[in-house]
Amino acid sequence: MSIIVGTDISEAAGNALDVALALGKLRGDREVVLVHVAEDDDDAALAAARPKLDALAASRKGGLAIRTELVAGPVDQTLVQLAETESSDLIVVNARSRGKAPLGRNANLIISRSHVPVIVVRDPKPWLAYAAHERPLRLMLGIDDSAVCDLGIQWTHRMRSLGKVDVVLGAIYYPDDAAEHYGFDRKSMVDRDPEVEQVMERDLLRRYGTDLSYNVIARPRVGIGRIGDHMVELANEEKVDAILIGTGQKTGIGRLGSVSSVIVDAATQSVICVPPHATIPTMTVPVLRCALVATDLSQFSNRAVPYAFAACEPDAEIHIVHIIDDNAKVDVEDVRKQLLALPPVGAKQKVTAHVIRGDNAAKTVAQTAARLGVDIICICSHGRSGISRALVGSVADRLLRATRLPVLVLRPA
């Protein structure tokens, strides 16, 4: 693999090259590709740029080869296409400069097109110190529920495998939505909710991974306006060196609401943007340490219980849940005893039984799973079809829409 460095050959353009060389050496790359894209297809302009480009490459020495490329075309499209041609896995550009076509102005366009992560460099010093193993890189990772966030987590673990990284897990929440998600009583739409933040911190650390042998802290932040603005404020408070964010790669007018676009424009730190189609190796494998299995105590529904035990580690915790209607008259203790009789013989996992009231079984199961902080939900599908499915609906189907967690669904024979 190689790193593509976009440069406008301005005074500050060497910052991106310095960071790329440091990272490339740390990764064991053979070369860095230094690219200048001229928007005007003018032979005279290209000829004038060649000695400046070569001089910039010659001014950096340190054992890693620098290959220069001089091409004409739209900056963002050309740089991204070259990254594909070179099979590069990283693009590095400088945030701002004063050239005729500053790469800083094109950073958001590059990010919106790139299939590989893009680093927008502001201050190169933290990167150079990290690569020299002089101090940890302090990185804030923006956490949300998207799949691209998982790629950002793995990219951070990759950086940790190369050198010391201190991680701040930043997550913006809206109090009413968060309370609904966890099944808490709604207190306010604008004020921070300590109860919500406590469970969010737990979930953020679990999602990131359990190898906390280095500094990892979770920082939920209540949101009112744009998420990007809150992320920048949090990054400044935590004094991080760089912000890492996944991007949905919105284009056109959609970029007005893009979190990554706001952060790239407003942050005083370097920004790393990971696109949804990036190929990033999995550095850590999820471990299932807590599961919820829901049963209506029918013979078939109870068959889901052993699968919850099979999915989890021996030291895991299994929550067996039964939902009853709000007005149902039942002997709760008797139901709890029935639930505790369901685990497989010889199971080593800790078992807790819950009898919970709720008129919407799928929503109640989803909220309970979120509140308990489980890693997976197990449930049986009764396999309704046709008019029965249309009239009654499927708890399993509705659960899949209500939860953000993995769901193991046991189908009828």
Notes on the structure:
The protein is built from 15 helices and 15 strands. The protein has 413 residues and is an alpha/beta fold. It has 3 domains: 3-120, Rossmann fold (3-Layer(aba) Sandwich), CATH 3.40.50.620; 125-274, HUPs (Rossmann fold), CATH 3.40.50.620; 290-410, Rossmann fold (3-Layer(aba) Sandwich), CATH 3.40.50. The longest helix has 16 residues, at 43-58.
Distance between the termini: 48 Å
Q: Please write the CATH class name of the largest domain.
A: Alpha Beta
Radius of gyration based on Cα positions = 26 Å
Shape summary:
elongated
Query: Can you tell me the CATH superfamily of the largest domain?
Result: HUPs
Content-based structural category: alpha/beta
Helices and strands, with pairings:
Blueprint: E1 3-6, H1 14-27, E2 31-38, H2 43-58, E3 65-72, H3 75-85, E4 90-94, H4 103-113, E5 118-121, H5 125-131, E6 137-142, H6 147-162, E7 165-173, H7 175-182, H8 194-208, E8 216-222, H9 227-238, E9 242-246, H10 259-266, E10 270-274, E11 290-294, H11 304-311, E12 317-324, H12 332-340, E13 350-357, H13 361-372, E14 376-380, H14 386-392, H15 395-402, E15 407-410
Parallel strand pairs: 1-2, 1-4, 2-3, 4-5, 6-7, 6-9, 7-8, 9-10, 11-12, 11-14, 12-13, 14-15
Antiparallel strand pairs: 5-10
Keywords:
Rossmann fold; 413 residues; alpha/beta; five-stranded parallel beta sheet; 15 strands; ten-stranded mixed beta sheet; 22% strand; 39% helix
